[in-house]
């Protein structure tokens, strides 16, 4: 029986497959945060990819040892189509957010290819886009990730405009206020 693959091995297999299939994709989620800000633990891989369900894609995924499952949402959900991938021999799962709208494809256009510790390169969404995605996701870790990205990344002139377009400018302002208040407390404690 085969051992489950590590996060890095799964990521390497995914990047290789997407490159061979000429599918545009970029990391989002915890691995993207770790690329631009502080390294942090994550148990899965999240990416944004320009894909739609087709029998050809399904066949390629199955042929490479992936178990795909498609999930559709309705209405105003920020993720209308998600592909969940599990490797046949186990290991971390992959959530592929399908870039079904122009704004998501624009994020892929702005992604930046970086070399990871394993020596392979992978596109990662730009920090401003990652912040907007994290604000939209609304999970318990997301405001912490946004604050970390804001502290560690240079000032992003385009961020407020992108947050306004997606309706998360107020959330962004609240995170900034929290950072400002934290810095004020740190300054007072340092005196």
Question: Would you spell out the secondary-structure blueprint of this structure?
Answer:
Layout: H1 7-20, E1 25-28, H2 29-36, E2 45-49, H3 55-63, E3 66-72, E4 81-87, E5 94-98, H4 102-110, E6 112-115, E7 121-124, H5 127-137, H6 142-152, H7 159-165, H8 169-190
Parallel strand pairs: 2-5
Antiparallel strand pairs: 1-2, 3-4, 4-5, 6-7
Helix pairs in contact: 2-5, 5-6, 6-8
User: What is the number of domains?
Assistant: 2
- C-alpha end-to-end distance: 60 Å
Proportion of beta-strand residues: 15-25%
**Number of beta strands:** 7
Structural notes for this entry:
It is a single chain. Strand 4 and strand 5 form a beta hairpin. The longest helix is centred in the last third of the chain and has 22 residues. The model has no long low-confidence stretch (mean pLDDT 89). The protein has 191 residues and is an alpha+beta fold. It has two domains: 125 residues, Beta Polymerase, domain 2, CATH 3.30.460; 66 residues, no CATH class. The strands form two sheets. A five-stranded mixed sheet has the order 1-2-5-4-3. Helix 2 packs across helix 5, helix 5 runs antiparallel to helix 6 and helix 6 crosses helix 8. It is globular, with a radius of gyration of 18 Å.
Give a concise summary.
The chain is built from eight helices and seven strands, in the order αβαβαβββαββαααα. By secondary structure, it is an alpha+beta fold.
Task: Sum up the structure in keywords.
191 residues; 2 domains; alpha+beta; 48% helix; 8 helices
């Amino acid at each position: 029986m085969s051992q489950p693959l590590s996060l890095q091995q799964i990521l390497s297999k995914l990047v290789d497959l997407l490159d061979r299939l000429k599918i545009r994709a970029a990391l989002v989620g915890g691995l993207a945060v770790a690329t631009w800000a502080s390294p942090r633990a994550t148990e899965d891989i999240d990416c944004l990819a320009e894909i739609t369900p087709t029998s050809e894609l399904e066949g390629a995924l199955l042929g490479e040892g992936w178990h795909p499952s498609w999930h559709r949402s309705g209405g105003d959900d920020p993720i209308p189509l998600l592909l969940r991938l599990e490797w046949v021999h186990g290991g971390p799962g992959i959530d592929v957010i399908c870039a079904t709208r122009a704004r998501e494809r624009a994020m892929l256009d702005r992604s930046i290819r970086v070399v990871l510790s394993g020596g392979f390169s992978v596109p990662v969404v730009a920090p401003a886009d990652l912040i907007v995605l994290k604000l939209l996701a609304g999970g318990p870790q997301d405001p912490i990730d946004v604050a970390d990205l804001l502290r560690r990344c240079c000032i992003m002139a385009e961020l407020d405009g992108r947050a306004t377009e997606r309706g998360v400018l107020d959330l962004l302002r609240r995170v900034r206020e929290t950072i400002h208040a934290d810095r004020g407390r740190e300054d007072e404690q340092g005196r």
